[in-house]
Amino acid sequence: MNDIPVQDRRFTARRQAERLLSGGRPQTVRESLAELAALADGPYPLDEPTDRYGDGIVRTLERRTADLLGKPDAAWFPTGTMAQQAALKTWADTHGPVVAMHPLAHPEVHERRAHQVLSGLRSVPQATGPQQPTAAQLAALDEPFDVLMLELPLRDAGFLLPSWEELSALYDFAADRGLPVHLDGARLWESAPHLGRSLPEICARAGSVYVSCYKSLGGHSGALVAGEEEFVRRIKVWRHRYGGRLWQQWPAVLSALAGLDRELPRLPDYVAHAKVVAAALAGTPGARINPEPPHTHQFQLWLPYPAEQLIEAGHRQAEEQGVSLFGGWWEPGPQPGAAMTEVTVAADALEWSAEDVTEAMTAFLALL
Questions:
Q1: Is the model's pLDDT at 5 over the cut of 90?
Q2: pTM for the model
Q3: Is the pLDDT of residue 27 over 60?
Q4: What is the phi/psi pair of residue 6, to 5°?
Q5: Would you state the torsion angle of the CA atoms of residues 195, 24, 85, 87, taken in this order, to the nearest 10 degrees?
Q6: What CATH number does domain 6-24+265-366 carry, 3.90.1150.10, 3.40.190.10, 3.20.20.70, 1.20.1530.20?
């Protein structure tokens, strides 16, 4: 069994497990295709011609997303990396190429700094450490910038959000200086409960808002950027230049529409239950939850064991006990032998009580 590649073993173990705590059950291509075909009976415009270069069902998703975020229009992109670049490049055309973003921001950490290498943009670090920037920190920067980018939530800091008062102060800072604000809202959908405001209220003062179609909605792929009509018209020019004007995109778009119907209404329940799950996990000897309590339905769990050992225990628990608690483990911090996993509380986790989590964690630790 140990000779099987880790990803293949995890896929098989999680598919066979009777109960899952973090994330969803992985699917085969056949299962994904059947799920997509089942949408034929749903309330979607399937009797119109397939989309061509962004019309038809693509426009349906763009208009619906714009309405949900309180913006006049939106543009679909095949990837979030392309969406981010196009949005920042569009702002650079009118305001300048220097973007203030967190050192842990997605373009800096997970996009191979494409905004710098491909788009000729330059970033100014907003703050140090795993925290959201404050208006005071931005005011203290000794280097000017043209665009303010905020990642809500800040994934690599633990899916961390500011308070509504802190976010309002950041908007005030940008407005006072005439700076456009771009929201990296890949996971913005689940941020409303912590901020205590609706999505349109959260986005109202941002010039552009990027959201993902698969990170929380469960779509196959894709992203959207919402904003004023003129901004969206110009961002589509950069979408074309970056190679994002695809001939047909209806499978991904259809899955995103289904995600808006299925997952978006359930996210508040996921966020609320994440606090229950996190509190139960916090009772594990040596465990650390970040942030505590969670700001969204995702959070970090740290344990004082090597990642390899935790991965093996997780595989064994799924294979031998039919319980899969977590996905992957990493050792990203400076402390040797301490590993972290990202916990995602979704539909499967709603069946878990705090007592269930505690009991399963006891069995997990016994395998270490």
A1: no
A2: 0.95
A3: yes
A4: -55, -45
A5: -40
A6: 3.90.1150.10
